[in-house]
Amino acid sequence: MPPTFATCVDDLFMEPANHLLRHYTRNVREQGEGLTDERFVRCGVLRALEGDESGRAFLQSLADQPETQTLAKSTWFDAFKSARRLRLVAELATSSYHHFERQLQDRDWLQAFPELEETPVWAVDGHQIKHASHALKDSKGAHVPSGMIYGMCLHHGLVRAMSRYYGDGARPHEWSIFKQNWRSWLAQDQRKGMPIFVVDPAYIDNQFWAFEKIQKQAMIITREKDNMKPTVYAQEAFDQDDPVNLGVLADELAGYSNAVLRRIRYRDPATGKDFVFITTCMHLRPGLIALLYFMRWKIEKTYDVFKNKFKVRKAWGTGKTSATMQAHFVALLHNLLTLLLARLEKTGLSQNALIERAKKRRDQIPENKHVPSHAMIRHAFPLSAQFIRAARNIIRFKIPWELAYPIFKQRLFSYL
């Protein structure tokens, strides 16, 4: 929907989700529960955006707005226990992700690497927040944080929730929950290539990943643990004149206790720090393997956005249904803001303040220590706090696009 001067940013912001929701063809209850699905989705996204310290505070902020229908506390909290609502939100999360991916196809972080064009590349990690007020305790009487596994697409920076792994007294290992859920989660990916998971060493299971590669199901990039004792079988030749390979010391084939993996030794030109990466990706340039692992940090920066910029620091309710809906809403908010930023970029705006700060840091590094591949990544910046605050205020006060655009321009250009 192209914006007009009279269009409220609130409507423009939510339109992609509302458009998909209107095409949701299952048995959708419009009025019977006192809370339409469209309003539930809107309120779920706003709950994540507003950063209120509690559900009651959020409901009061809605009630205090003029000409806004009051939302009953019981109606709101009961909605987060509804299996039907969860199915709706989960389906909306999937369909919106595919819609946003198409909208952002000309904003690919990895556009400079055509060998990855048809390859899904996911940074996956767990994220923990504080337990809900009435959450169950574990066998020792201690509360357990609410933990969710998310994946970030390293093509577009879009985020999807995978599965809950911590909460309500349970502490299963993140890796075991990932193994139970990754296939069904990945089945929704529309790229045709064999997917690559970029993960921290907690996801190391050499035999598992070697088997998945043989079965042409998935590949892994991670760092070698200090206690792993490989046997190097062969040194592979690589193009040392390729700027992408700057920093690569060796490309090896190494044996571990139960698998043979590719092993890449790398020294960061900027810091001199040594890294050892292990992977089942045999076809990519060794420097690109290193770059993709360093891009894994993008999901950690996104978790910082969730916690410190969205201020989503506590579970909204108890139980897996509530936790999963909360995760979908937080991811949907992140993706809607990413899409809004992309729309602003098409008008000539950008996160100039953030880009200039990154440029100043880069300029402080001597020229001979620059990493060329890092400069090849496009748009790979987290959402800035100033952009998020501007969006929050503009949406809260239903400011029309005509007045909102100059605010975005000013807030994106420089820091207050």
Describe the overall structure:
With 416 residues, the chain is α+β, with helices and mostly antiparallel strands. It has 13 helices and 9 strands. Helix 1 crosses helix 5, helix 5 packs parallel to helix 10 and helix 12 packs antiparallel against helix 13. The longest helix has 26 residues. The two termini are 31 Å apart.
Can you tag this structure with a few keywords?
416 residues, 9-stranded mixed sheet, alpha+beta, globular, 13 helices, single chain
What is the gist of this entry?
By secondary structure, the protein is α+β, with helices and mostly antiparallel strands. It is built from 13 helices and 9 strands. It has a 9-stranded mixed β-sheet, sandwiched between helices.
* Alpha carbon gyration radius: 23 Å
Query: Biggest β-sheet, characterized?
Result: 9 strands, mixed
User: How many β-strands, per DSSP?
Assistant: 9
Helix content: 40-55%
* pLDDT averaged residue by residue: 91
Strand content: 5-15%
- SS class: alpha+beta
How many individual helices? Answer: 13
The gross shape turns out to be globular
Q: Order of strands across the biggest sheet?
A: 3-2-1-4-5-9-8-7-6
The helix/strand order is HHHHHEEEHEHEEEEEHHHHHH
